[in-house]
Amino acid sequence: MCFAGWRCLHWCRNLGRRTLLCLVFALVIATFVLTSYVLSGGKQDHTFHFFPSKLKEPNLSFKKSQEYKQDKTDQTIMTNITTPHLQTSSSGHGLLWVSRRIPDIEDLRQFEPHIFSIIPQEFLQFSRNPCWYQEYKGERDPYSNNAYLLYAKRFRTIFEEMRQSFWKRLQAIGGHHYRLRCLPYFYIIGQPKCGTTDLYNRLLVHPSVRFSAIKEPQWWTRKRVGILRQKETPKSRFPLENYLDLFDLAAQEIQGLHSEMKRKEDGNIDSPIIGEASASTMWDNDAWIYIYDNVTNTEPPHLTLDFIHVLQPNAKFIVMLRDPVERLYSDYLYFSVANKSVEDFHDKVNDSVQMFESCLRTSPLRSCVYNTTLNNLLPLLSTWELTSAKSVKYFTM
Ligand SMILES: *[C@@H]1O[C@H](CO)[C@@H](O)[C@H](O)[C@H]1NC(C)=O
Ligand SMILES: *[C@@H]1O[C@H](CO)[C@@H](O)[C@H](O)[C@H]1NC(C)=O
Ligand SMILES: *[C@@H]1O[C@H](CO)[C@@H](O)[C@H](O)[C@H]1NC(C)=O
Ligand SMILES: *[C@@H]1O[C@H](CO)[C@@H](O)[C@H](O)[C@H]1NC(C)=O
Ligand SMILES: *[C@@H]1O[C@H](CO)[C@@H](O)[C@H](O)[C@H]1NC(C)=O
Ligand SMILES: *[C@@H]1O[C@H](CO)[C@@H](O)[C@H](O)[C@H]1NC(C)=O
Fold it and tell me: Where are the transmembrane segments (predicted)?
């Protein structure tokens, strides 16, 4: 059996067909990403504003983070998203798109009680970022136990910088100390080799954008579960606080602006927006087997993005994609270690396709997509990408 992404490789000489196919392919992947996860749920204006609007009058009371019109059409988008299932019938294989209910807070809380106890359901109004004040009861050195620092000493300078301004910013109210905590306003996500780093570098110099202290924290997909590198088994989990620490410089700045605003009673201050650029947040669900205890099912009950969706429903996402064949070859050239050649590339792609097809002969599509063992064994491509390719076959042939 052959599939579209694979044929695309063979048709590289046939420019017309290739361009057409690849275009459709890219379109389907985009549709796949967007329809299968209408993350912000069509609730509000989805345009990404690089220039945050002027701050209003300081208001310390909370704003409902899920402030949106509960109209019927939106509700449909929110509660049901489509996921592809492979359908086998006498007439052959076909992709069947079936509904999946988007989990709500009650579905997810039990799996991450600590995270849900820290991140409030309502955020402060004066910043576009999801921020809140949290009492600080910690050590003299706020970062001594941060796992990002413990595992990578190269971050020492960054943490030293954060340490120096930490105590200056801490607010004392009635014998208690408070710090501002923030999650990102937007995420840059996408496949590898699609320009996420380029976009990151450009936005890094934007006067109104601040990024996490580390470029790709990979917290939602890996560190949250204790996975340090892709394909490794979990070690110790990175608590949410370690991740939040990465936004401290931005949070301190926003808090400073807030105090200044209160002092001057002047609402005309530009508040920066916070970004995060862990590309894998889009597709990496390999950790699911470590998250759900007693799971006898072969499919994840919930996905990484479900958690972000419930915790910050208004998060914005910039998705970076590219012509899938070009992407794959670029990925191969960049990540493969030895004996790179066109033939070797061909064999690795073929082997990956064969392994995926072989899984599909015995298991449902969704369990193959989320088969972490299989994903780790594939010499190239991911089950996720293979599924996107597969859906193209059934849409175009
Ligand atoms: C502060 O925000 C709350 C909730 O959004 C609102 O009810 C209240 O009127 C606001 N207060 C001021 C002084 O604007
Ligand atoms: C959502 O999906 C469920 C289960 O497949 C179905 O029963 C329900 O009618 C769907 N709701 C909408 C609004 O499509
Ligand atoms: C998992 O199963 C064991 C034994 O059946 C049970 O004691 C435990 O409570 C279960 N854990 C969860 C989280 O359901
Ligand atoms: C690369 O090719 C050489 C010679 O054919 C072989 O000995 C070696 O094992 C190959 N390395 C890898 C990583 O496949
Ligand atoms: C792909 O690999 C299989 C064996 O795994 C082989 O039979 C087949 O000829 C290969 N196809 C191509 C196009 O190289
Ligand atoms: C997952 O992949 C592994 C390795 O290919 C395979 O042994 C296993 O049966 C697969 N599991 C499912 C549920 O398909």
Answer: 20-39
